[in-house]
């Protein structure tokens, strides 16, 4: 009697409903390269449109933020994907900024087409920063952890010394004035200068995010991860750890260089003071706050990096303080706040804002029946 | 001749400070496998505490005692308060948290004391003693040498001749075996931080009158110099740190005398790149700990 189970129920059961696949836009991990470029372009268009809603000062902040974003995105992948900690990415931004300044100033005297004057300096900024990054990357290719961190720290501390030593080239502490190509004639009726700067910055950021998004989903990303997790195992699998590290360092320096170029374009200046050790550490803080190794986290980090100093300086201005104290608070307060945030995020939520948002979304999804 | 002797004296004095600071780095590295990037800021904070005592009482010996105590206290605070709770997922986390400590400390020092350099007066002449017609070395430099020699010898004795030193070496060498043999590994780690932080603070205090000047950012460059020294010596080797420290001190003094003080950071960067390219495990390291 064991075999007389009622089999009819099985056949009477309704045909299994295939789970409805979510729209492809909602599953970024399955995007094809073309779809990724499409989404990047769409995001860029939306962001360009959004600049019409902002006043000039906020557009200026947005432009500065996109410059930060370029550097933060590259640094985030460097730290998160290949496990190389750089404390000196401000130096690569500075390399980009100075390269931009030299090229743009040289082209201003020549009668070149305005498109060349606009784009060529950015190209030179990327190339110069990538070259410097490759040199430092080769010196640090066999190193990890504290060794590379110390090397990059020495690099960013040597920067002011270099600019004051060769002050006839780099303009000393005051830096260089950058003569830039303004917005095209036909646009000048439509948008203000700050908005155009935001457009240039958004274009650069979209380029960086688009390229890095392709990189993250490429087979190369798996090599980087292998090098980070176990160098010996990676080598046994036929991966060259040194080449992988140098390449990633070069890419991340190139994005930082583009960021420095954007900053030089927006502020029309390239000076050592803008790329101090503190700023270099700020970039790391932004990476950690957003979520190490993720591009969405880099966007969060750039937002925080722009807003917190704005917030602290408006607080110090609002408080009725003696002039000397408010001068001391100015700048230093932001450093303290960033330091506290860095420590707290590391100890409490090491995956940053992006990780926190991700787990929140996951929890909401699971709760839904 | 006199210039050469003076340069050598100044270089060795500078190098002694580097050696002491690098020794502090090596102590923590051996005890916990953490390169303490906050060491400069922690030491400068201890030096500011000593500065307050110095302007309050005017007693330099008391300031030396205070800097040791304050350094030890800060070391315990950072280890017990932060480093103990690190997520162990990545070895980079310790560096990132240390960077956070650097930012908090330098920012707070900037708010409390401002960015200007604080003078520290010492009860020793800084004019060189002359023997016959040769100017050799200033009394203050001599004092720095003696103090550092005593501290280095003391640390050497502690690690090689006492049971406490043996326990600290054991827990650094193999945590698990040490614990099985009854060594209180956690306590040893805290002791390592205390010792290292106190030594670092002393190095900064001794360097302030002649070399550094007391400023919230004094520790930045000193840290990079001492880090380079520690790498050259091999992060594992206390003897290496001392020898490399003296060597780098003399080298840096010669370079900055020839081409000016601004060349210093560039020279250190080039030296670091050179060492990392040619001999990344350091001159005195026995093991190849750095690869993979």
From TrEMBL, chain A:
<feature type="transmembrane region" description="Helical">
    <location>
        <begin position="279"/>
        <end position="308"/>
    </location>
</feature>
<feature type="transmembrane region" description="Helical">
    <location>
        <begin position="119"/>
        <end position="140"/>
    </location>
</feature>
<feature type="transmembrane region" description="Helical">
    <location>
        <begin position="37"/>
        <end position="54"/>
    </location>
</feature>
<protein>
    <submittedName>
        <fullName>Branched-chain amino acid ABC transporter permease</fullName>
    </submittedName>
</protein>
<dbReference type="Pfam" id="PF02653">
    <property type="entry name" value="BPD_transp_2"/>
</dbReference>
<feature type="transmembrane region" description="Helical">
    <location>
        <begin position="246"/>
        <end position="267"/>
    </location>
</feature>
<feature type="transmembrane region" description="Helical">
    <location>
        <begin position="196"/>
        <end position="216"/>
    </location>
</feature>
<keyword id="KW-0472">Membrane</keyword>
<feature type="transmembrane region" description="Helical">
    <location>
        <begin position="147"/>
        <end position="166"/>
    </location>
</feature>
<keyword id="KW-1003">Cell membrane</keyword>
<feature type="transmembrane region" description="Helical">
    <location>
        <begin position="60"/>
        <end position="80"/>
    </location>
</feature>
<dbReference type="InterPro" id="IPR001851">
    <property type="entry name" value="ABC_transp_permease"/>
</dbReference>
<keyword id="KW-0812">Transmembrane</keyword>
<feature type="transmembrane region" description="Helical">
    <location>
        <begin position="329"/>
        <end position="349"/>
    </location>
</feature>
<dbReference type="InterPro" id="IPR043428">
    <property type="entry name" value="LivM-like"/>
</dbReference>
<keyword id="KW-1133">Transmembrane helix</keyword>
<feature type="transmembrane region" description="Helical">
    <location>
        <begin position="87"/>
        <end position="107"/>
    </location>
</feature>
Automatic annotation (TrEMBL), chain B:
<feature type="transmembrane region" description="Helical">
    <location>
        <begin position="221"/>
        <end position="252"/>
    </location>
</feature>
<protein>
    <submittedName>
        <fullName>Branched-chain amino acid ABC transporter permease</fullName>
    </submittedName>
</protein>
<feature type="transmembrane region" description="Helical">
    <location>
        <begin position="6"/>
        <end position="29"/>
    </location>
</feature>
<feature type="transmembrane region" description="Helical">
    <location>
        <begin position="258"/>
        <end position="278"/>
    </location>
</feature>
<keyword id="KW-1133">Transmembrane helix</keyword>
<feature type="transmembrane region" description="Helical">
    <location>
        <begin position="134"/>
        <end position="159"/>
    </location>
</feature>
<keyword id="KW-1003">Cell membrane</keyword>
<feature type="transmembrane region" description="Helical">
    <location>
        <begin position="190"/>
        <end position="209"/>
    </location>
</feature>
<dbReference type="Pfam" id="PF02653">
    <property type="entry name" value="BPD_transp_2"/>
</dbReference>
<keyword id="KW-0029">Amino-acid transport</keyword>
<keyword id="KW-0813">Transport</keyword>
<feature type="transmembrane region" description="Helical">
    <location>
        <begin position="41"/>
        <end position="74"/>
    </location>
</feature>
<dbReference type="InterPro" id="IPR001851">
    <property type="entry name" value="ABC_transp_permease"/>
</dbReference>
<keyword id="KW-0812">Transmembrane</keyword>
<keyword id="KW-0472">Membrane</keyword>
<dbReference type="InterPro" id="IPR052157">
    <property type="entry name" value="BCAA_transport_permease"/>
</dbReference>
<comment type="similarity">
    <text>Belongs to the binding-protein-dependent transport system permease family. LivHM subfamily.</text>
</comment>
<feature type="transmembrane region" description="Helical">
    <location>
        <begin position="94"/>
        <end position="113"/>
    </location>
</feature>
């Amino acid at each position: 009697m064991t075999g007389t189970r009622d089999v009819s129920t099985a056949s009477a059961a309704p045909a299994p409903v295939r789970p409805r696949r979510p729209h492809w836009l909602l599953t970024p991990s399955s995007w094809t390269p073309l779809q990724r470029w499409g989404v990047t372009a769409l995001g860029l268009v939306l962001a360009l449109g959004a600049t019409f809603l902002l006043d000039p000062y906020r557009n200026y902040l947005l432009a500065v933020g996109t410059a930060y974003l370029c550097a933060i995105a590259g640094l985030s992948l460097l730290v998160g994907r290949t496990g190389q900690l750089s404390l000196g990415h401000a130096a690569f931004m500075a390399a980009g900024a100075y390269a931009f300044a030299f090229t743009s100033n040289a082209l201003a005297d020549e009668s070149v087409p305005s498109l060349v004057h606009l784009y060529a300096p950015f190209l030179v900024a990327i190339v110069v920063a990538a070259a410097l990054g490759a040199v430092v990357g080769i010196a640090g290719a066999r190193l990890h952890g504290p060794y590379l961190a110390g090397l990059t720290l020495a690099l960013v501390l040597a920067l002011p010394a270099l600019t004051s030593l060769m002050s006839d080239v780099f303009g000393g502490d005051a830096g260089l004035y950058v003569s830039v190509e303004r917005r095209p004639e036909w646009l000048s009726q439509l948008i203000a200068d700050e908005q155009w700067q935001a457009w240039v910055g958004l274009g650069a950021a979209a380029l960086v995010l688009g390229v890095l998004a392709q990189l993250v989903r490429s087979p190369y990303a798996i090599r980087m991860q292998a090098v980070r997790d176990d160098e010996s195992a990676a080598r046994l699998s036929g991966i060259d750890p040194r080449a992988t590290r140098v390449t990633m360092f070069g890419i991340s320096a190139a994005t930082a260089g583009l960021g420095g170029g954007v900053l030089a374009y927006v502020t029309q200046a390239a000076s050592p003071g803008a790329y101090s050790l503190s700023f270099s550490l700020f970039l790391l803080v932004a990476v950690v706050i957003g979520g190490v190794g993720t591009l969405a986290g880099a966007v969060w980090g750039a937002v925080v990096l722009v807003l917190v100093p704005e917030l602290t300086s408006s607080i110090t201005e609002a408080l009725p303080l003696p002039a000397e104290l408010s001068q001391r608070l100015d700048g230093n307060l932001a450093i303290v706040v960033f330091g506290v945030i860095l420590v707290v995020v590391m100890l409490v939520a090491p995956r940053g804002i992006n990780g926190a948002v991700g787990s929140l979304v996951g929890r909401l999804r699971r709760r839904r029946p | 001749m006199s210039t050469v002797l003076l340069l050598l004296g100044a270089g060795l004095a500078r190098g002694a400070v580097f050696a002491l600071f690098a020794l502090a780095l090596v102590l923590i590295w051996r005890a916990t496998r953490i390169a303490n990037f906050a060491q400069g800021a922690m030491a400068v904070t201890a030096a500011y505490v000593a500065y307050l005592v110095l302007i309050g009482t005017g007693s330099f010996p008391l300031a030396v005692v205070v800097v040791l105590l304050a350094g030890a206290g800060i070391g315990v605070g950072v280890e017990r308060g932060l480093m103990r709770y690190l997520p162990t997922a990545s070895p980079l986390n310790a560096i990132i948290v240390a960077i956070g400590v650097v930012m908090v400390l330098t920012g707070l020092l900037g708010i409390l004391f401002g960015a200007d350099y604080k003078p520290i007066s010492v009860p020793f002449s800084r004019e060189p003693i002359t023997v016959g017609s040769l100017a050799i070395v200033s009394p203050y430099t001599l004092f720095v040498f003696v103090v550092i020699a005593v501290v280095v010898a003391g640390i050497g004795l502690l690690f090689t001749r006492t049971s406490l030193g043996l326990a600290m070496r054991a827990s650094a060498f193999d945590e698990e075996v040490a614990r099985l043999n009854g060594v209180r590994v956690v306590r040893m780690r805290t002791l390592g931080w205390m010792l290292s932080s106190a030594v670092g603070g002393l190095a900064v205090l001794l360097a302030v009158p002649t070399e550094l000047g007391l400023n919230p950012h004094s520790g930045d460059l000193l840290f990079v110099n001492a880090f380079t020294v520690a790498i050259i010596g091999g992060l594992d080797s206390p003897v290496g740190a001392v020898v490399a420290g003296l060597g780098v001190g003399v080298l840096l003094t010669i370079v900055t005398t020839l081409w000016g003080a601004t060349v210093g950071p560039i020279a250190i960067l080039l030296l670091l790149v050179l060492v990392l390219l040619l001999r990344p495990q350091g001159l005195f390291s026995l093991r190849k700990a750095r690869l993979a």
